[in-house]
Amino acid sequence: MHFEPDVRPVTQMKTRAAELLKRVAETRRPIVITQNGKPRGVLLDFATYQEIRQSTLLLKLLAQGELDARSGRFSTQEEVFAAARGRVRRT
After folding, report:
1. How far apart are CA 76 and CA 71, in angstroms?
2. Which end of the chain has fewer CB within 10 Å, C or N?
3. Averaged pLDDT for residues 1-30
4. What is this structure's pTM?
């Protein structure tokens, strides 16, 4: 997905914050905030922020799993199920 983000100066964020928040909530498109003509931040709606955060956490878990697998730190399905059955029997 490619799109041109809205770009607004920081002064507009200061004077029209409610309007900008309404816009990102309705469109779910980010607004890039500039200061002295340079991008300094991005304004997102909260739902998009949560989606990005969840995606990032999932990618971190996948990367850790890859590292564990490459380092030999894993258990087979049979080992996991046997351990689970052993725990169930003890309770």
Report:
1. 14
2. N
3. 89
4. 0.68
